[in-house]
């Protein structure tokens, strides 16, 4: 039971925190307009697809690293997985931004919704590489049992997103009101902060697996 709790509970909390990105964005974007909320709902499936690709690589990396460490062998999956995730991040960034107007047009004829969805996705998808790399490092730390690190990193990013959403959307204090782009920017900054925490821990407290 202690082992299950120490490994499973932080992972469950990490997934809960990750789901809060969409919930928090939806809460604040719904206050902009109904069209903005509709646009956000139509972009979410593509965001989830991008996350699914990143998680797919991450889970593969996690499994191979664990097998190599258990067999006492030198691991190469981390470096290869990171390179593949980086390439796919660039491909998905270009494809997502280029194809989003056509994708939105398949589900609505409202030019207002298509315009808002395109504006949101252009900002959100420019952080795709950060998302992919963040997912790689999440699985990297999980593969060596550093579950609390992944939980803390994701929590930092989520808290930043919650704080920045109203500030960037409605223009609180010295910040300009960016509207739906502000929601995308807040999410991207939160995910970048998560990656930054992973990198800081990786270099300051070395783990068994190293990127080469």
Number-wise, the strands total 0
- N-to-C span: 36 Å
Helix share bin = over 70%
The SSE string, one letter per element, is: HHHHHHH
User: Proportion of β residues?
Assistant: under 5%
Biggest sheet overview: none
Overall geometry:
globular
Individual helix count: 7
Question: Radius of gyration, Cα only, in angstroms?
Answer: 18 Å
The poorly predicted ranges are none
> Mean pLDDT, as a whole number?
88
Question: What would a concise description of this structure say?
Answer:
The chain is mainly alpha-helical. It is 82% helix and 0% strand.
Describe the protein.
- The protein has 212 residues and is mostly helical.
- Helix content is 82%, strand content 0%.
- It is built from seven helices and no strands.
- The chain has helices at 2-29, 34-70, 77-105, 111-124, 128-143, 147-170, 180-204.
- α2 runs antiparallel to α3, α3 (77-105) packs antiparallel against α5 and α4 packs parallel to α7.
- The longest helix is centred in the first third of the chain and has 37 residues, at 34-70.
- The radius of gyration is 18 Å and the shape is globular.
- The chain starts with a helix and ends in an 8-residue tail after the last helix.
- The mean pLDDT is 88.
Tag the structure with descriptive keywords.
212 residues, mainly alpha, 7 helices, globular
Topology:
Layout: H1 2-29, H2 34-70, H3 77-105, H4 111-124, H5 128-143, H6 147-170, H7 180-204
Helix pairs in contact: 1-2, 1-6, 1-7, 2-3, 2-4, 2-5, 3-4, 3-5, 4-7, 5-7, 6-7
